[in-house]
Amino acid sequence: MCYFYTIYCTKMLAMFENETALQQPVASDRALIKDVHELVESYPRVPITVDCVIFGFDNNELKVLLIRSDIEMYHGKWSLLGDFAHDHEELDDAAYRVLRERTGMDDVYLEQVRTFSKPNRHPGGRVLTVAYCSLLNSEHHDLKILDNELHWHVVKTLRSEDVAFDHKEILDTCYAWLQKRMLEHPLGLNLLPEKFSLRELQNLYEAILDIKLDRRNFRKKFFSMDFLIDTGEYEDDVHHRPGKLYRFDFDKYKLNKKRWTGIEF
Which residue from 23, 82, 91, 108 has the fewest beta carbons nearer than 10 Å? Predict the structure, then answer.
């Protein structure tokens, strides 16, 4: 009995000492940092840039906006639209500024995709870049500035050796992101006229996904989603048999998008 009582007292004493120790202020092994400006000054200086990948759909082809590189070692090669972010500028603001200064467009929605941070991605030293992406109908957006031979290029014809820096990798990453988004959301419908044929709709998906889709299965898939409204009208001024015209029911999609799992072909 005395033995167990001794063990009990020992454990209780240890618990009391631990609680007392927790209540005592702990002395820090290192001094607290007072000057945060000096701290930041001690960090490595790594410039940050933004690169805009602007995809456009035109004549059943997916295209991307590029300019001629103004760096001598990349003479003759193409580059994405980019620039350094200013010290007091948010990255989103920098991306919109770049798009506005390079193209004159100010009505394009940009979405941040990814940061590219390979130490040797820029020949002049380490530079981080943040890629922004957009998809638009190039017929509805005029290029108001054409400096450095700015124009649309067909995506699938671009080769790595045609593009400066790691911009082909950035382009490919944004293209894969866009294809995934096309299957998750009906964002491509904004590229079509308000009234469109199923042929036009299929051409859009084939161009962006870069695949050939079975006509019957494609139509069955879209009809099963129940978002297409038959207008009762037909195509005119076409060289083939006129097809029915449809509208996409965006209001119905908004009400059901939480339950919508996307499209699978």
Answer: 23
Q: Which residue has the tokens 């980019």?
A: 82
- CA dihedral sign of residues 222, 223, 226, 232: positive
CATH at residue 147: 3.90.79.10
Q: Which residues contact 141 (CB under 8 A, 6 or more apart)?
A: 56, 105, 107, 108
Please indicate, yes or no, whether residues 106 and 226 belong to a single structural domain of this protein.
Answer: no
Q: What is the pLDDT along the chain (265 residues), one digit of tens a residue?
A: 544 445 555 555 556 556 555 555 555 567 898 888 888 888 878 999 999 999 999 989 999 999 999 999 999 999 999 999 999 999 999 999 999 999 999 999 999 999 999 999 999 999 999 999 999 998 889 999 999 999 999 999 999 999 999 999 999 999 999 999 999 888 888 899 999 999 999 999 999 999 999 999 999 999 988 899 999 999 887 778 888 999 999 999 888 877 777 787 7
3-state secondary structure of 31: coil
- Residue 80 neighbours by CB distance under 10 Å: 28
Q: Residue 207: which domain range? A: 193-256
How many CB atoms are located within 10 Å of the residue 102 CB? 22
To the question of pTM greater than 0.85 for the whole model, the response is: no
* 77 in any annotated domain: yes
Look at residues 183, 208, 238 and tell me which one is the last residue of a structural domain: 183
Q: Which helix (DSSP H) or strand (DSSP E) does residue 217 occupy? A: helix 215-225
Domain limit, last residue, from 183, 215, 233: 183
Same domain, 148 and 213: no
- Total residues belonging to the chain: 265
Task: Based on the fold, state whether residues 175 and 197 are members of the same structural domain.
Answer: no
Question: Are 177 and 197 found together in one domain?
Answer: no
